[in-house]
Design a protein that fits this description.
It is a single chain. With 206 residues, the protein is mainly beta. The chain has one domain. Helix content is 10%, strand content 52%. Strands 1, 2, 3, 4, 5, 6, 7, 8, 9, 10, 11, 12 and 13 form a 13-stranded mixed beta sheet that branches. β8 and β9 form a beta hairpin. The two termini are 15 Å apart.
Length: 206
């Protein structure tokens, strides 16, 4: 995709993830690292708190991106699906899918080339609970997942990565553990006490 095709947009909000790797997922540090198991399966949860895409307000929308990738993620051949909260308007649905599918430029455009199989986008009720140190996402019949901050020496502060380069997360990321059950008939995730992270993202394409 050329720069001319990238649409101007910006967004801020909450991003959290969980996968089957032991903490911390090697693929999170760099896709050229070998993940813990033969397949790395997991999901990202995106809550848009503010933003705009081609005149469409993004605040209040939410999505889940589930994936299944080889152990060596840089090889590509990922399978992915985007699930968008069914409360989003038709215009918001198009905007969120363009951003998370990589067609709008920005951070998700860096990940899109690794995906060889896109499952059909789904529109389902998504509930996200944010209790500070504990985040939870529920899609009835599909996903029940959560991440919880690990404890540091100073119990009043989270354990973080600082200055960590990652395409979709902020440079400051809170380290957590996660547990989840996810099944859409193709991608299946079952984790307990595995890799988890969350951050406050700021994405933009100018």
């Amino acid at each position: 995709m050329s720069k001319a095709e990238a649409r101007q947009w910006w967004a801020t909000g909450l991003l959290f993830e969980n996968c089957c790797c032991q903490s911390v997922c090697p693929g999170h540090v760099h896709f050229d690292q070998m993940c813990t198991l033969e397949r790395c399966v997991g999901f990202w949860v995106v809550r848009f708190d503010d933003g705009e895409y081609r005149g469409v307000a993004l605040g209040g929308t939410a999505a889940v991106i589930a994936y299944d990738s080889p152990r060596h993620m840089i090889e590509g051949d990922w399978t992915e699906v985007i699930i968008i909260d069914d409360q989003a308007s038709p215009e918001q649905r198009q905007a969120v899918e363009a951003i998370l599918g990589g067609r709008a430029g920005g951070p998700w455009a860096k990940l899109a080339p690794f995906v060889s199989r896109w499952l059909e986008t789904r529109y389902l009720p998504i509930r996200i609970d944010d209790e500070g140190t504990h985040k939870r996402v529920v899609i009835d019949g599909v996903l029940d997942g959560s991440v919880r901050d690990i404890r540091g020496r100073d119990r009043s502060k989270p354990v973080t990565f600082e200055n960590m380069f990652n395409q979709v997360h902020a440079t400051s990321q809170v380290i957590a553990t996660g547990s989840a059950t996810y099944d859409d008939g193709v991608i299946r995730v079952h984790t307990e006490g595995t890799h988890g992270l969350h951050s406050r993202f700021q994405w933009s394409v100018s």
